[in-house]
Specification:
Strand order of the largest sheet: 16-15-14-13-21-20-19-18-17
Number of domains: 2
Radius of gyration: 25 Å
CATH topology of the largest domain: Beta-lactamase
Number of helices: 12
Helix content: 25-40%
CATH architecture of the largest domain: 3-Layer(aba) Sandwich
CATH class of the largest domain: Alpha Beta
Structural class: alpha+beta
Length: 457
């Protein structure tokens, strides 16, 4: 019989404990994604969320979290449908390209060829300028009058009269400002050219073709099984979403879908099963401004880096709902995040955290910055979406920061140097422009907007 001393037993116990800790399994990918999605739900800032993560042909996660109905404590069903807001725009763009390929229109057509009564105020606005947000037409969602209008049941022409009477924000092609009016007009063009309602065209030519059985044109009155109820962030917590008549988001934002259906759509669109190869390439090719500058937006979809990775993506926001659909072509990765809460939690950031959990940390893009900081510091002002934009570029030691005007809540954002005169604030590019050797302007490119700001004296 072998005798073991107390000291020897203690050593064995300690060794076993160390070995046990060393061999403890790391959290699974699914549990890490669960933690990311559940955090804002547990904090009470989001009611419910549905998530899909598909890499190649493998579904990594397809789950529902939280509640679809807060009042009745109804858990989010596995195939819950949500209002997807501006994710609608890529469906509208695909519809336009299908009609173009059938010879029913040209994207170089002036809008007046199909909507002859539209007052262009002496400007030439092509269908292409509508698709990539460079038309300069005033966006109706930025008009104060739309706050009351969105509650009404009126002819669609009345909304067109409302925004078409406003002066253009800029001559077509000079800048890019995200524009719901443009996609509203595209819906009218689709109906006129196809002879079908927008709802019927999208249902028959896109949803049915791809295999999206739980997708449809949203309604504020129709009862739909498994449709999540929407909530807005209020001063004391979540509250029922504000009313919106779905006459008005229309081809800019009135589609409803599920995570599974949006995965099917994304894989079909980027897999060559929706458009011809030439039309797909055109859809994801960045638009050009009049001076030849490339934006980071194609037709109804952004083609900008997210988290320092190449992505083709779009988000959506509408009363009570936020959405994000991202495709990473280098990794054949699809991430869809749908939440039934419009508030402080951005599903784009949730999706980016999920991507990092799947793919690991993104590659570094920063390069050493040795230029004179004073060449860039100052205040820059120009147009923005719905209101003027003012930025302050300041020194922070040997680096730069950018502060967007916005009252007491504005915070300096660090700028990451990308080379030349280009920096990045998160996913937004800040590109300084020189004239006569001195910086006189900057281009602010968010992926869905490209504004030219002038340096003030």
């Amino acid at each position: 019989m072998r005798v073991t001393t107390i000291a020897g037993m203690t050593a064995l116990v300690l060794a076993a404990g160390v070995a046990g800790r060393a061999q403890a399994p790391a959290p699974s990918l699914e549990s890490r994604i669960d933690a990311i999605v559940n955090a804002p739900i547990s904090a009470g800032t989001v009611a419910g969320t549905s998530v899909a993560v598909v890499k190649g042909g493998t579904t990594l996660v397809l789950k529902a979290y939280g509640l679809a109905d807060l009042e009745l404590d109804v858990p989010t069903p596995a195939n819950a449908s949500y209002e997807i807001g501006s994710v609608t725009k890529q469906f509208t763009a695909a519809a336009m390209l299908l009609l173009r390929d059938e010879g029913k229109l040209s994207l170089d057509d002036p809008i007046t060829k199909h909507l002859p009564d539209y007052p262009t105020q002496g400007q030439v606005v092509t269908l292409k300028r509508l698709l990539n947000h460079t038309s300069g037409i005033k966006g109706y969602t930025e008009l104060d009058a739309f706050g009351d209008f969105m509650l009404l049941q009126r002819p669609r022409e009345d909304l067109v009269k409302l925004f078409s009477a406003q002066p253009f924000d800029f001559p077509p092609g000079d800048e890019q400002i995200y524009n719901n009016s443009a996609f509203f007009l595209l819906g009218l063009v689709i109906e006129k050219v196809s002879g079908q309602s927008y709802q019927a065209f999208v249902q028959q030519r896109l949803f049915d073709r791809v295999g999206m059985p739980d997708s449809y044109y949203c309604s504020e009155r129709t009862i739909r099984k498994r449709h999540a109820h929407g909530y807005d962030a209020g001063p004391t917590g979540l509250q029922l979403k504000g009313y919106l008549n779905h006459l008005w988001p229309y081809a800019a934002g009135s589609l409803c879908s599920t995570t599974a259906d949006l995965v099917a759509w994304t894989r079909a669109l980027h897999g060559g099963r929706v458009l011809s190869a030439a039309s797909y390439k055109e859809m994801i090719t960045p638009g050009l401004l009049n001076d030849g500058t490339a934006t980071r937006y194609g037709y109804g979809i952004a083609v900008a880096d997210l988290g320092r990775r190449r992505a083709i993506a779009h988000g959506g926001g509408i009363n009570g709902f936020l959405s994000e659909v991202q495709y990473y072509p280098d990794d054949d990765l699809v991430v869809v995040v749908l939440q039934n809460t419009a508030g402080t939690v951005n599903p784009r950031e949730t999706a980016k955290q999920i991507v990092e959990a799947v793919l690991g940390p993104a590659p570094a893009r920063a390069v050493p910055f040795t230029a004179a900081i004073a060449a860039y510091t100052g205040t820059y002002a120009g147009r923005g979406r719905g209101r003027p934009t003012t930025l302050t570029i300041a020194a922070n030691g040997s680096a730069l920061t950018m502060t967007r005007a916005g009252g007491a809540t504005a915070r300096p954002e660090p700028l990451e140097y990308r080379g030349g005169d280009t920096f990045a604030a998160g996913d937004t590019l800040v590109m300084f422009v020189r004239q006569g050797g001195s910086v006189t302007r900057l281009r602010l490119d968010s992926g869905s907007g490209h504004n030219v700001l002038t340096r003030t004296p």
